[in-house]
């Protein structure tokens, strides 16, 4: 079982179980336990809204990893596979630590409100619906990645879904659905500008 059960334990694992000047996606997954759906989605959401996302192309890469991972949950794979090229993508570790220090200020308050509620929503078959929602969030990220701070809301959505599964909190899961709807509405609002930028 994963040792990650809330936001603070994720941050502790990432800081204590990584080292060196750079970290790869594989390093981060190994730090949280890549066989646990909730912690991995929580990790991917964290990367999406942390300073790690300032690395060129990082938002789209994390969206792609989220898409691949979530699709495999949908079809019922117990041990999702990720491509080696994605696993080998590296970030400066200082950005990871910077993100940890920013979010840890709020981690205790977030964890205080988490508790097992409506736990049936965090189990099969609902977990497959959560994975579909994460697929949607990942797809929304690609066009929003052309807009400054655009990927933040879908990244937050994935983080909330991951946190809900990790803490077995069905109430937070419903809040995450609201975040996904907000990301979809943002996409609808800016889609004409994105299409104009792409010359479509």
TrEMBL record:
Does the keyword section mention Membrane? yes
Q: Where are the transmembrane segments?
A: 36-54, 60-81, 126-150, 170-191
Q: Which UniProt keywords apply?
A: Membrane, Transmembrane, Transmembrane helix
InterPro entries in the cross-refs:
ExoD
Domain of life from the UniProt record: Bacteria
The identity of this protein, by name, is Exopolysaccharide biosynthesis protein
